[in-house]
Structures are given as C-alpha cells and as structure tokens.
Amino acid sequence: MISNDLMHFHPRPDLTAPVLHYYSVLGRALNVAQHLEIGCRALMSMFYLKTHPEELFEPKTSAADPRDPGEPRDGIRDLKTSKGILTKMEQIAKKTLGQQVKALGDKEIVSPNLSRLLGEATEARNALIHSIVTEVEDREDLDFKKMVDEIVVIVRNLAAADKWIAALLTMLNKDPLPGGRFFDTYEDRLAEWVTAPTFRS
Fold first, then answer.
1. Count: domains in the chain
2. Is there a domain that residue 172 lies in?
3. CA gap 51, 168 in Å, rounded
C-alpha cells in the first residue's frame, strides 16, 4: 500500500510474477481491441473508395497502350495521386471505434445483427480502456484470477465482432474464407491466446 500523501501519484507496483502476467494479459486484450478498430477503419475506407471511384481514379483517357504505342486504350484510368483521397483516409483514421461503428450501421454497410455485435464490442472496449486499466498496487489481496476472468469476457465480446469484420474484409478482397471450424472457435482461440502463460518453464 502507498501512503495517503502519495495516493495521487503512480504506485509503481512491484513487478511480481502475478502482476507481470496481469499486465501481459491486459496488453494482449488491448491488442485484440486494436485489431477490431483497425478492421472497422479498413472497412469504412474500402466502402468509401467503392462508392466514390472518382476519388480514386483519374477521368477516362485514351492513352497509348505501352505494349503498342500506336494503339489507344480507351477506358483505361490512372490512379490519382491527389491529396484529396489522402485527406479522406486521414479523416476516417481519426474516428474513434464508436464513431466507426455508428457510421457502419448508419450507412448500412453491416447488417443490423452485426451492428448490434459491434455496439456490444464497443462497450466492451470502453470498459477495457476506462475501467479495467486500473492501478495494481503492491497488495496481497488482489484477486488476479477474477481480474483476468473479467478481461476474458471482454475479449470474447471483441472477438465475436472482429471475426465478422475480418470476414467482410476477406470477401471484399476476394480472398478465400477459412473453414467453419475456424469461425466456431475464433473466440476460444483468442481468449486462450490472451490468457496464455507469460512465463514458460
């Protein structure tokens, strides 16, 4: 315990094995939350580019075919290098997870069921950031197992939404989807990864 006159300063808890493992679990959980946020950002960006192709390509030209300079190639468009598209991508990147999720639902980019899952995942992420990330003082009465169990519940909520965002991105990229067992065990595998031993004997 730290004295009352220092209670507003960082406690610098002793880095015992339980404390280190807790922070390790917490860090991995934050990584899962960040993965979901990055996925939502990517989905918003892909949707914007798909619905605003004029922002991505220059107007159609009749440039010569490089394989045969004498032959024009009507309809071929070149990628833009303007700052406009970069500005839009930066605007999307600056949005919070809650703002991304709201936009995905409002624009009907995701189904109502996925929108609900994303809302629950956002609440779980906020709980992780604002409630779970708390001081771990040098005390013997901290129930680390209970604290880790709380993190696992949050990770499962995050994973339930993350797997569908990842699936949508995979399909939009025209890549093959993994098998059904991969989806069925996604939450379990992420929870196992988050809680895996920090120290191996």
1. 1
2. yes
3. 16
Mean pLDDT of 121-136: 81
pLDDT of 104 strictly over 80:
yes
DSSP state of 6: G
Residues 158, 121: contact at Cβ < 8 Å? yes
Strand partners, 72: 64
In a domain, 75, yes or no: no
Contacts of 74 (CB under 8 A, 6+ apart): 60, 62
> How high does pLDDT run on average in the chain?
81
Give the pair of three-digit tokens for residue 199: 């120290």
Residue 80 is classified by DSSP as P
3-state helix, strand, coil in the chain (%, to 5): 65, 5, 30
Question: In terms of Cα–Cα distance, which of 104, 107, 201 is closest to 161?
Answer: 104
Tell me, yes or no, whether 62 lies in a domain.
Answer: no
Structural domain containing residue 34: 15-57+89-195
- For position 94, what pLDDT does the model report? 86
Residue position matching structure tokens 């990584």: 31
The reply to whether 7 falls in a domain is no
Measure the CA dihedral 160/164/169/174, to 10°.
140
pLDDT at 190: 97
Encoded amino acid at 158, one letter:
L
